[in-house]
Amino acid sequence: MSYSVGRVAGFAGVTVRTLHHYDEIGLLVPGERTRAGHRRYGDADLDRLQRILFYRELGFPLEEVAALLDDPDADPRAHLRRQHELLTARIEKLQKMAAAVEHAMEARRMGINLTPEERFEVFGDQDPFNEEYAEEAEQRWGGTEAWAESRRRTASYTKEDWQRIKDEADDWQERYTALMAAGEEPSGVPAMDMAEEHRQHMNRWFFEVPYEMHRCFGEMYVSDERFKAYYDAMRPGLAEHLRDAILANAGRHPA
After folding, report:
1. pLDDT, tens digit, for every residue of 8-39?
2. Beta-bridge partners for 170
3. 80: which residues sit within 8 A by CB, 6+ positions away?
4. Rounded distance, CA 184 to CA 235, Å?
5. CB 60 within 8 A of CB 68
6. Looking at the DSSP assignment, which residues form a beta bridge with residue 32?
7. Coil, helix or strand at residue 106
């Protein structure tokens, strides 16, 4: 039995455009085509798509997914074992984050003041603005108006505020990684719109970020190894993609 591209998109929760893109780059070429040239997907194609989506969810770039799936020596069971190990590691990390949130909720209920370390615990170990770099950040930007404004605003933030900030950032991250997975170029309107959303998030919660400053941040995300590691942990290559999207977005808003 075979299925149309529309039905497969519905099964998998992806767009028809994504399936077309996978076909064009040779990642998922449907096993059949109708006389009119329409794509038809069989069970083997659906199995491959499932493996692709597992790896994509885990942050693998599409070219690496293709290399993994097309390895002639790879055992399908080995793919499942690898994916299980990676998913288990992610679940453990999410469980730790959930425990940190529960701890914060309980502290709030009992009126306990959290330490700075506890307050930022919910962000996990990859946050580039953690206590390890706080002193460096103050030395670097401490005399600026932006730093003073950020300190003024965040001093009054509650745990719920910090959770809202994290939720917004997580939502943006999921949508940006999906945008990259769909093959969107940094200079495209969707990527530029998300770069603008990135800038507005900082405007809303920390300090005003003019486009020229946002350009500088974009370059820093690539040049500073810690920021690059932070963004590339979301999806390999994201730091450079975001930098280019920031530059393209700034370019459509001339001073």
Report:
1. 999 888 899 999 999 999 999 999 999 999 99
2. none
3. none
4. 14
5. yes
6. 40
7. helix
